[in-house]
# Entry
Amino acid sequence: MVHDIARPVDGTPLVLLIDDCPDVHRLMRARLRHEELELASCMGGRQGLDEAIRRQPALVLLDLDMPDLDGFEVLRALKSHERTMDIPVIILSGVQSSQDKVTAFDLGAVDYITKPFNLTELRVRVRSSLKMHHLVQMLAQRAQIDGLTGLWNRAYFDKRWSDAVAAFERHGRPLSLAMIDLDHFKAINDTYGHPAGDSVLQGLARLLQREPRQEDVACRYGGEEFTLIMPETTPEEARHVCERIRTTLHAITWPRHPERAVTCSVGLAGAATPIELSAAEWLEAADRALYLAKQSGRNCIHTAELSPRLAQAG
Ligand SMILES: [Mg+2]
# Structure
């Protein structure tokens, strides 16, 4: 479910050491050897910055005094880049300077360690920063997950969908979006009670996690409405995926109401070749297709016609 988070919350944390002095790297490697972390090394500020943006470590240990790009400049850049702004940074410095400390904390460093390092102190500070980062990551991830179904929520969908459309515009690879809505959901709630309604939502969510492929992203869009982002998928292929979801859902026997089957309607909007359509317009097209699926009797899929002409009109 969380396969598309850049770095899993539960993996071994990556610590990036940026320091121009080889001795510091040797020392750190020896002293942090028994910690549960993976240590990556960069010998300069510029390379370290690139590496931090690329690998998104859980912690950066940053030397202040470096020839190409000094620690303050790296720290400023890390804190202003979207991909690295939340990564804790511990400053390593050869000098005890109050002014440097103030500057470092002002720029967003979480800690400041003076060389030569006290072994115990170093370990404790690294551990505490990693723990804090882990908690923040977990909270951030939880804020994007729907509590009832365990799927991604609307906030996550909005971001992820814009990213998918941006990637589509860049690479011109196929992309499809499905809006899936439970039929007569209110009647299920009214007839069998809300726990039964919740079970149906969870049942469809399980299907949406199981049926699509690894790279597909299932979200609870709101209420009884779900979205499925299908990268690298033509409308025809997407239709097969959705058809499988539709028929599988229809075939489920629900323990709370075995006599009553549950169905869904699907609005599909996909493109196999480049089109000019904003993320919002594309979503609207899927929503209109869903409306037409409902109009034509529910328990079916309607595919939107996406053409360049539609894009100009929008
Ligand atoms: Mg140095």
